[in-house]
Amino acid sequence: MWEQVSTRSRKSFWMSLKLFSYLCAIHATTQGLANNQRKVLTIGGLYASGAMTTWQNGSGIVKTVNEAIRFINERSQLLPGYKLEIEWRDTKCQLGHGVQALFKHVNEPPTKIMLLGGMCSAATRPIAECSHLMNLIQVSYGASSFYLSDKEKYPLFFRTIPPEKGHNAGRLAVLKYFKWNRIAIVTEREPYYEAAFTSLTKLLKENDITIVADEFLGESKEEEHESPIKILKDRDARVIVGLFSEEKAVEVFCQAYKQGLYGEKYVWLLIGWYRPRWWEIHSARASKLDCKTEHVTEAFGNYISTEFLKIGPSSPDIIGGEKAYLTWKNKVDELGFYSGFAHDAIVAMTLALNSSAEVLARRNQSLADFTYNNTEMAQLFKNSLSKVTFPGFSGRVYFNKQGERKGVVTVSQMQDKETKILGNYTVLKDKLVLKSSKFVWKGGNIPVDQMTTVDKLLKISPGLFGFFCAVEVLGIIMAVAFLAFNICHSDHRFIKMSSPRINNVIVVGAILIYIAGILLGIDGNFVSPDVEAIVRCRFSTWVACLGFTLGFGGMFLKTWRVHKIFLNRTKKMVISDFQLFAMLGLFISIDLLILMVWEIVDPLYITKHYTGREEYSPSTDTKYKPYYIDCTSSYTSLWLGVIYAYKGLMLAFGAFMAWETRNVTFSALNDSRYIGISVYNVVFPCALGMTVVNVVINRDACFAVLSVLVVFCTTITLCLVFVPKISTVRADPLGTNRPRFAAAAALNNQTPQTRPEERQQLRTEPNRELNPSTRPKQEDRQRANTNLI
Ligand SMILES: *[C@@H]1O[C@H](CO)[C@@H](O)[C@H](O)[C@H]1NC(C)=O
Ligand SMILES: *[C@@H]1O[C@H](CO)[C@@H](O)[C@H](O)[C@H]1NC(C)=O
Ligand SMILES: *[C@@H]1O[C@H](CO)[C@@H](O)[C@H](O)[C@H]1NC(C)=O
Ligand SMILES: *[C@@H]1O[C@H](CO)[C@@H](O)[C@H](O)[C@H]1NC(C)=O
Ligand SMILES: *[C@@H]1O[C@H](CO)[C@@H](O)[C@H](O)[C@H]1NC(C)=O
Predict the structure, then answer these.
(1) Rounded CA gap, 585 and 253, in Å?
(2) Where is this region: Disordered (predicted)?
C-alpha cells in the first residue's frame, strides 16, 4: 500500500520533475531566442560628483546619456540585434576614485565593451593609461587637458570635447588677426587653467608672439591679485589673455579698475563659457574688495571671448532626433554643456559599434564576444571610431588621427553687457571667419599691442643756428674787409712792415674757422644723416684744423721772425716770407698728415646716441626716444689727443714767442701783446667750452657753446691783429711817418692813457736783460726795415 502510494507519488514526482524541466527547457529556449535577438552590450560610464565638480553638472550628463541610450535602443537601424546598457561609476574628479571606478568596471561582470568618460582630466588620465591595456576604447566628453593628446601613451583614447590646444589655436588666430604680437597672460592656479597656459605659451612661442608678462593668481587672498595687475601695468601690457574662472575674473577686474588698467588702450581675451551677466552673480566678491559691479564692467570693457562651439546648429540629421536636440538645448543651462559632448560621445561609440558589428558578422563573430584580451576587436573599434562622422548636439563630430575632436571655436565680444558672437574658427582647416566691422572699440580703433616708439632726432633749433650763422657770416664779411684793407694798403709803409702776406693767411685761417662754425650747425634740419657724417663730422674737422693752423700758425710765425730779428744779436738773421711760408707749409703738412691718416685708418662716422630721457605722449600713445647724432670713430680720443697736442704745442710756442718779444716796441712788427691776449682768449674759453660740451648733452647748448667759442676767439684775434693797423693807417693815410711814431700816433689816437707809459718805454729803457737799449734800437729799426720791406 505504502509501496503503491510511494511508487505513485514517485511517478508523479518524476512527472512533475519532467514537466518542470520541460518548462524550464521551454523557458530557456525562449530566453535563448530573446538573447539571440538582442545581445546586451554594456558600456562603462564614468561621471563625477562632489566638491570638485561644481563647474559641471554630473547628474545632467548621466541624464542626457541615459536618454540617448533609450533613444538608440528604440531605433532598429542602430545596433540591430543588440541592446545597449550603461553602468555608471563616480570618479569624483580624483585620481584614486577614478582608478577604483575602472577596477570595478573591469572586475565586475558584465564585460564592458567600451568606456565613456571621464569628466575631468585629473581622473581621466590614469584611467586612460590603464584602459588600453584591457583593450577598452575610451571616449571622454570632458577631459580637455592637452596631456591626453599623447597617442603613444593613450592609444585607445578619444574625446568629443575639443582639447585645449585647439582652443588656443583659436586664440592665436584672433591675436594674429588683430596683429597683436605682444601679449600678457594671467592664469589662475588651477590644473585646468595651468594646462591651458602651458599649451598656449608653447603655441605663442612657435608663432613669435612675445609674452611680456605671465602672471599667476594666488590662492583666494584678494590682496594677492594686486601685484599681478601692477606688473601688467608696469610692463605696459595692452592685450591680456585671461585664463581664470568667473569668480577670479571679478577680483581681477576689480583690481584692474583700481589700478587704472582699463580703457581704450586695453583689451582682454577671456574664456567664453562664463555665464551671462557673470559679474552680477559674483557681486558679493566685488563688494568685498570695495568694487561696484560697474567698476568690473568698466574694467573688462569690450573683451573678446573664445570658446568651443558647445551647441551645434539644429539639423534634421542629428542622431538622437531634432526634437530631442531642441529639448536638450532648452535645458542646457541646467544640464551643463558637457552633457552635449557626452551625448555625442555615446552616439559616436554606437556608430562605431554598429559598423564594427557588420564586419564581425562577416567573420561569424559578434560584438558580445568581446573580451578584455581581444586586441583585434579593439583595433577594429578604433578604426571604426576614427571614421565616424555625424551631426551631434555640439556640432559636427569627427576625430582626427589622434582621436581628438577638431571643433569650431566661436569668437565673441562683450558689447553692452551682452556677448555677441562675431565669428568662428575651424580648427581642422585653421580658418578664421570674423565679422570685423561688428567689433566695438572704445577708442574707435582696434587697440594696439604696445605704444608706438618713435626715435626723435634732436636737432639744433633753427633760430639758434640762424643767429650764429648770421654772426659767423658777419665775421666772414669782416674778415674779407680786413683782407681787402690789407691788400689795398699793402703799399702803406706800416702795413708793409707788418708782413701783410702772413696777415692775409691769418685772415684766410679765420674765415675757415668761421666756416667750420657754420658747418657744425648743418645737422638733421638740413641734410640726411649720411651727408651730415660727411659735412658736420669730417669736413668741419678738416676746415677747423686747417683754419686754426693758418690763423694762429701765421701769427706765431710772425712773432718768431720778430724774435729772431731782435733777440739774436750775434748774427744777423734774415728770415724771408718764403721761409715763413715754408714753415707754414710744414705746419699744414703735419695737419694734413694727421687728418689724412685719421680719415683713411679710422674715419669719423655717425652714431645714434640715445639720451635716455623718453617722452610719452598720451594723446597719440607714442613714446619718443630722443637721440642725437654723434661723430665718432673707433679711437676718437686718440685722434683728438694727437690734434689737441699739436695745436697745444703751437699755442705754447706762440705764447713763448709772445713772452720773449713782449718788449719789442715796434707796434707795426710786434703783435706779441695781442698774441698773448689771443692765446689767453683761445686756451681758457676752449678748455672751459670743451668741458661744458662734454658734460651737456643738450644739442642746442652744445652748439651754442661751440659757436660762441668760434666767434669769440676768432673775432677777438682778428680784431687784435687788424684794428690797430686800421687805426694807424687812418691816422696816417700816406704812410709818411716812421713806424715808431706811427705807433705812437696810433696809441695817441686810440688809448691816450697808455701813451705816457708807452713813451717811457720807448725813451727810457730799463736795464732789462732782453731789452735793447736806445742805440741798438736804431739798429733794430734799420734791420727791420731792410729785412721786412
Ligand atoms: C543638474 O542636472 C540635474 C538633472 O537634470 C538637475 O536636476 C539639477 O538641477 C542640475 N543642477 C544644477 C546645479 O544645475
Ligand atoms: C547599423 O548597421 C546596420 C547593419 O548592421 C545598417 O543597416 C545600419 O544602416 C547601420 N546604421 C547606421 C546609422 O549606420
Ligand atoms: C560562418 O558560419 C556559417 C554557418 O554556420 C558557415 O557556413 C560559414 O562558413 C562561416 N564563415 C566563416 C568565415 O567562418
Ligand atoms: C583570451 O583569453 C581566453 C582565456 O584566457 C582564451 O580562451 C582566448 O582565446 C583569449 N582570446 C584572445 C583573443 O586572445
Ligand atoms: C562660421 O561663421 C560663418 C559666418 O558667420 C558661417 O557662415 C559659418 O557657418 C560658421 N561656421 C560654423 C562651423 O559655425
Answers:
(1) 79
(2) 748-789
- Closest CA relative to residue 171, chosen from 304, 352, 40: 304
Q: What is the pLDDT of residues 235-252, one digit of tens each?
A: 888 999 999 888 889 988
- Integer Cα distance of 746 and 731 in angstroms: 7
Q: Checking DSSP bridges between strand 239-243 and strand 304-308, what pairing results, if any?
A: unpaired
Q: Which of 36, 85, 38, 61 is nearest to 350 (CA)?
A: 85
d(CA 221, CA 224): 6
- E strands present in 499-620: 605-610, 615-617
Closest atom of ligand 2 to CA, residue 81: 5
Q: What is the DSSP string of 620-636?
A: TTEEEEEEEEEEE-TTH
According to DSSP, the β-strands at 210-217 and 267-271 are unpaired
Beta bridge partners of residue 411, listed in sequence order? 306, 423
Q: Tell me the per-residue pLDDT of 136-179, one tens digit each, with 9 for 90 and over.
A: 999 999 888 778 888 889 999 999 988 877 888 999 999 999 99
Taking residue 527's Cβ as centre, other Cβ atoms within 10 Å add up to 14
Q: Tell me how far the alpha carbon of residue 361 lies from the centroid of ligand 3, in angstroms.
A: 10
Q: ∠660-663-668 over CA atoms, to 5°? A: 105
pTM above 0.85, yes or no: no
The kind and range of the H/E element at 216 are strand 210-217
362 lines ligand 3 (CB under 6 A): no
Rounded distance, CA 643 to CA 591, Å?
8
In 3D space, the residue among 561, 450, 445, 414 whose CA is nearest the CA of residue 502 turns out to be 561
- 331: CA distance to ligand 1 center in Å? 9
On whether the CB atoms of residues 721 and 485 are closer than 8 A, the answer is no
Q: Which residue has the cell 581622473?
A: 123
Find out whether 124 and 148 touch, Cβ atoms under 8 Å: yes
CB 274 within 8 A of CB 417: no
Cα–Cα distance measured from residue 122 to residue 117, given in angstroms and rounded to the nearest whole number: 12
271-282 burial, b at 16+ Cβ within 10 Å, e below that, comes to bbebeeebbeeb
Ligand 2 within 6 A of CB of 80: yes
Which of ligand 1's atoms lies nearest the C-alpha of 334? 14
DSSP 379-446: HHHHHHHHH-EEEETTEEEEB-TTS-B--EEEEEEEETTEEEEEEEEETTTTEEEE-GGG---TTSSP
Residue 354 in contact with ligand 2 by CB distance below 6 A: yes
What pLDDT sits at residue 267? 92
Alpha helices in 47-136 (DSSP H): 58-74, 95-107, 121-131
Sole residue written with cell 567573420: 363
SS3 241: strand
